[in-house]
Amino acid sequence: MRRLLPLALLLLALPLLGGCNLVLLAPSGDIAMQQRNLLIASTALMMIIIVPVMALTVYFAWRYRAANREAEAEYDPEWSHSLPLEVVIWTAPLLIIIALGAMTWLSTHLLDPFRPLDRIDAQTRIPEGTRPLEVQVVALDWKWLFLYPEQGIAVVNELAAPVDRPISFKLTSSTVMNSFYIPALAGQIYAMAGMETQLHAVINKPGSFKGFSANYSGAGFSQMHFNFHGLDRDGFEAWVAKAKGGQRLDRAAFAELEKPSEAVPVRYFGSVEGGLYQAILNLCAAEGRMCMHEMMMIDAKGGAGLDSHANRDRLRYDRVRDEAGHGAPTVPASGQPARSDAPPTGTNDQDSGRGGPAPPQVQDR
Question: Which of 185, 279, 321, 343 could disulfide-link to 285, CB 3.0 to 4.6 Å?
Fold first, then answer.
């Protein structure tokens, strides 16, 4: 009776699994489907070794137990080598490793998130001249901002796309590193400040799917989720028209949106200031900041010497964030109290050259 109790408990627990949403094993996007197939194939290959090893472990433990007195189970300490057994032990794992390596190499290139799609699904190629839907994704504290440059709209914490139309995501962050993930659509991809990552995907079935942050990013991380809607063409046009009724997203509105907030409801913006996404990407959406591409241009020219002294205030990012209401400057960076009242070198007016000694001369070589 005691032996049957664990089996009975297992059978009783099986109905509870009926409520599980196994989205990874039943995705609605072609990229996620290919990833699912790769997961199943890799697991099946590994089971070729794991299942026999586990079964033989139980078999040997039972057959060669101390209480077994059968002649066939006699312990033989002189046994040392079997060529057929060695061939099986080494050849089977080697073949499986070769197969897994080949699958990994192929899938790494075919499922590269930066690689544009060449098919809608396993049976349908992308028609010649098809233009993907471009979506610019910005990770904020703690919400997602989606900009549609073709439609001229922006939406907070809601995403939509037509069924069977390729989607080209461009992702960045205005804060710490984050991770964009819609399990039904494709694999996760990181979003990092000052950098742009890409993800190409397509949704093949209509419906509403969960998207969320897959990388811890602070206090509001657990509520940093959104709904992704797969719609037919008319449904998508209606959704865009609904978003068109929102207010304008300019730099001033973005500065307010950028402030940390949790459990933010869906919000629509009917128009977007030109170049806003590029300004966010280049860390210069706030008034007075120098853009990264300007810094890189100066560096590429070997530095601007005395001419760059006028850019000093534009590089004081903490001061700009403080004036925008994002918190006190992080000086010192550790957050600990300063050891003295003396201002840090390079932060007061005298060091900056206003009313003080001129900055050192830079000699050309």
Answer: 279
Distance CA 193, CA 224 (A): 17
Residue 179 token pair: 């991770």
* Residue at 90: amino acid letter: W
Give the strand order in the sheet containing 158-162: 158-162, 225-231, 207-213, 178-181, 189-191
Element (H, E) at 213: strand 207-213
Contact call for residues 204 and 221 (beta carbons, < 8 A): no
Alpha helices in the chain (DSSP H): 4-13, 30-63, 83-110, 233-243, 251-257, 276-281, 292-300, 317-323, 349-352
Q: How many whole angstroms separate alpha carbon 66 and alpha carbon 75?
A: 10
Is 325 in a helix, a strand, or coil? coil
Q: Which residue has the tokens 């919400």?
A: 143
215-221 average pLDDT score:
89
- Exposure of 12 by Cβ count < 10 A (0-12 exposed, 13-18 middle, 19+ buried)? exposed
Q: What is the DSSP letter of 15?
A: G
Which amino acid type is present at position 55? Answer: A
Please write the tens of the pLDDT for every residue from 35-84: 999 999 999 999 998 998 899 899 888 887 877 777 666 766 677 778 88
Phi, psi (deg, nearest 5) at residue 136: -100, 125
Q: Are 201 and 29 in contact (CB under 8 A)?
A: yes
Cα 262 to the center of its chain, rounded Å: 20
pTM: 0.75
Partnered with residue 179 across adjacent β-strands are 190
Instruction: Decide if 134 contacts 148 (C-beta within 8 A).
Output: yes
